[in-house]
Amino acid sequence: MLTEFELGDRVEMRKKHACGGNEWEITRTGADIRIRCVKCGRSVMLDRLDFMRAAKKRLPRGENADQGE
Fold first, then answer.
1. Inter-residue contact 10 to 21 (CB < 8 Å)
2. What is the pLDDT of residues 2-36, one digit of tens each?
3. Contact of 24 with 11, CB cutoff 8 Å
4. Distance between CA atoms of 20 and 5, rounded to whole angstroms?
5. Burial class (CB in 10 A: 0-12, 13-18, 19+), 58
6. Mapping DSSP to helix (H, G, I), strand (E, B) and coil, where does residue 51 land?
7. Three-state SS for 22?
8. What is the phi/psi pair of residue 35, to 5°?
């Protein structure tokens, strides 16, 4: 369970998105967490507890695998 995260962090989720990507960027924090798919740009809002259960790991800040391709 991922417990520490901040605005702008990139996280890997347990399940892949319909577009095939599983890397997300946190765009809002609070009682609810909004994340944006890095691959397709789709935005999803999750309850904080649901997000913490579904997030697999926090990715390093410098990792931009899908950028520029």
1. no
2. 889 999 999 999 999 999 999 999 999 999 999 99
3. yes
4. 23
5. middle
6. helix
7. coil
8. -125, 150
Measured on CA atoms in the order 69, 11, 18, 35, is the torsion positive or negative? negative
Say if residue 11 is exposed, middle or buried (CB neighbours under 10 Å; 0-12, 13-18, 19+). buried
pTM given for the model: 0.81
CA distance 68 to 54: 27
Q: How far is CA 15 from the centre of its chain?
A: 11
Structure tokens at 20: 């095939």
Q: Which residue has the tokens 């417990």?
A: 3
